């Protein structure tokens, strides 16, 4: 299960990076500019929080409950690159 | 946001388009301020709009003297400086497909969902994800600040022929 959660977290992180790249202006498109990308506005995304329910397999439900709450905290730097700050997982219906 | 208005698009496009809309809205707000200054402050010929009035004052030893005052209209009205200081976007997507792209990172296809709680039919690869994306105004890059300085240095006041002498 952990491997599949990690795969989803990685996928979400990359999708956010791809999405923000659509709004950035590559400096290399400007004559003489260095290879640095900047956001095209001083109004820029700074933080993303993603939460999702992760269904737990039948055999583990008695112990952990039906799902995990997974929360990702992401900071976005000035060039628009997301940096994962932390991932927490909580089983709100766990029996232990 | 109504459900099913967007279906099965790459999650990256969804994130990017929402951020782009906020940035575009900020640009439109700045344009509205610019338009206001242009329309209220200047006439069709580019001349400064002014409010003019005259009055008489008794000057000791001279007598009654007449004065004319001309005040730029822009200094008399509040200018709506519009802009977005902070924005927070919250939305929930349903992941409908996770595929291995050309690169190592899997790609996600998503559609807008009602909320993260209504996830009863979720499987490990079709879960609902709630996003809260915060945008803030950041410092202007040093290069742009330098350009502003150059532009400010180029503000010039030059003499023009008085009307009727052109």
What's a quick, concise take on this entry?
Chain A is built from two helices and five strands, in the order αβββαββ.
Which short descriptors sum up this protein?
heterodimer, A: 96 residues, alpha+beta, 3-stranded antiparallel β-sheet, 5 strands, 28% helix, 40% strand, B: 166 residues, 4-stranded antiparallel β-sheet, 2 helices
Secondary-structure map:
The complex is a heterodimer of chains A (96) and B (166).
Chain A: H1 2-21, E1 24-26, E2 37-39, E3 43-55, H2 58-64, E4 67-76, E5 82-90
Chain B: E1 9-10, H1 11-41, E2 50-59, E3 63-72, E4 86-100, E5 106-112, E6 128-137, H2 142-153
Antiparallel strand pairs in B: 1-5, 2-3, 4-5, 4-6
Q: Classify the secondary structure makeup of chain B into a structural class.
A: alpha+beta
| Domain unit count of chain A | 1
Strand content of chain A: 35-45%
| Counted beta strands of chain B | 6
Averaged pLDDT of chain B: 82
3D shape of chain B: elongated
The level of helicity of chain A is 25-40%
Order of helices and strands of chain B: EHEEEEEH
Helical content class of chain B: 25-40%
User: Rg of chain A to the nearest angstrom?
Assistant: 18 Å
* SS field, number of helical segments of chain B: 2
Taken together, the total number of domains of chain B comes to: 1
Unreliable parts of chain A: none
Fold and architecture overview:
The complex is a heterodimer of chains A (96) and B (166). In chain A, strands 3-4-5 form a three-stranded antiparallel sheet, covered by helices on one side. Helix content of chain A is 28%, strand content 40%. The longest helix of chain A has 20 residues. Chain A is of the alpha+beta class and 96 residues long. The mean pLDDT of chain A is 83. Chain A is built from two helices and five strands. Chain A has one domain. Chain B is an alpha+beta fold and 166 residues long. Chain B has one domain. Helix content of chain B is 26%, strand content 33%. Chain B is built from two helices and six strands. Chain B has a four-stranded antiparallel sheet, with helices on one face. A two-stranded antiparallel ribbon of chain B has the order 2-3. At the A-B interface, helix 1 and strand 3 of A face helix 1, strand 4, strand 5 and strand 6 of B. Strand 3 of chain A pairs antiparallel with strand 6 of chain B, so a sheet runs across the interface.
């Amino acid at each position: 299960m952990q491997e599949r959660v990690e795969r989803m977290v990685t996928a979400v992180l990359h999708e956010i990076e791809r999405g923000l790249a659509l709004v950035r202006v590559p400096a290399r498109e400007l004559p003489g500019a260095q290879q640095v990308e900047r956001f095209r506005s001083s109004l820029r995304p700074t933080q993303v929080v993603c939460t999702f329910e992760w269904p737990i397999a039948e055999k583990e439900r008695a112990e952990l409950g039906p799902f995990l709450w997974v929360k990702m905290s992401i900071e976005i730097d000035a060039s628009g690159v997301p940096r994962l700050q932390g991932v927490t997982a909580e089983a709100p219906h766990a029996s232990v | 946001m109504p459900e099913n208005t967007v279906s099965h698009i790459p999650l990256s496009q969804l994130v990017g388009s929402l951020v782009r809309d906020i940035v575009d809205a900020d640009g439109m707000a700045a344009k509205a301020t610019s338009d206001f200054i242009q329309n209220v402050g200047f006439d069709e010929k580019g001349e400064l709009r002014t409010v003019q009035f005259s009055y008489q004052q008794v000057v000791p030893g001279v007598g009654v003297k007449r004065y004319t005052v001309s005040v730029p209209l822009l200094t008399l009205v509040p200018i709506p400086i519009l802009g977005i200081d902070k924005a927070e976007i919250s939305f929930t997507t349903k992941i409908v497909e996770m595929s291995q792209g050309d690169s190592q990172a899997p790609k996600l296809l998503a559609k807008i969902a009602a909320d993260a709680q209504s996830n009863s039919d979720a499987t490990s690869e079709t879960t609902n994800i709630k996003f809260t994306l915060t945008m803030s105004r950041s410092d202007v890059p040093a290069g742009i600040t330098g350009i502003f300085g150059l532009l400010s240095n180029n503000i010039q006041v030059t003499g023009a022929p008085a009307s009727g002498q052109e």
